[in-house]
Amino acid sequence: MIRKLREPRKTLPNPKYIPKPYEKIQYSGQRVQADVKFVPSACLIGEVKGESFSQYTAIDEYSRFRYIEAFREHNSYSSTIFIGHMLKALPFKVECI
Predict the structure, then answer these.
(1) What is the pLDDT of residues 3-50, one digit of tens each?
(2) Rounded CA gap, 29 and 65, in Å?
(3) Domain-embedded: residue 6
(4) What are the distances in angstroms from CA 58 to CA 47, 50, 52, 71?
(5) How many domains does the chain contain in total?
(6) Which pLDDT belongs to residue 4?
(7) CA atoms within a 13 Å half-sphere pointing along the CA-CB vector of 46
(8) From its phi and psi, is residue 50 left (phi > 0), alpha (psi between -120 and 50) or beta?
(9) Domain limits at 57?
């Protein structure tokens, strides 16, 4: 049996990871991150045991100031109410959420 000689495959080098540039935050309120999480029933005690809640959280990226609120429903109305309460509660003006 005759085998054909061939050059070994050339593997291309993996491109190095190039991180995306991240805008450094200069002051409080420049950017606030908001998130919603379902609260597990194991975390509920007392009168609210057995009900379902959604935890809304907003964190300022510069100062790490947090605002947390829980709602029985996860819908656009609850989100709007949360944003209104958050804007009143934060001690600075928010430019971007």
Answers:
(1) 666 677 777 777 787 878 888 889 998 999 999 999 887 878 787 777
(2) 10
(3) no
(4) 26, 26, 20, 14
(5) 1
(6) 65
(7) 1
(8) left
(9) 32-42+50-89
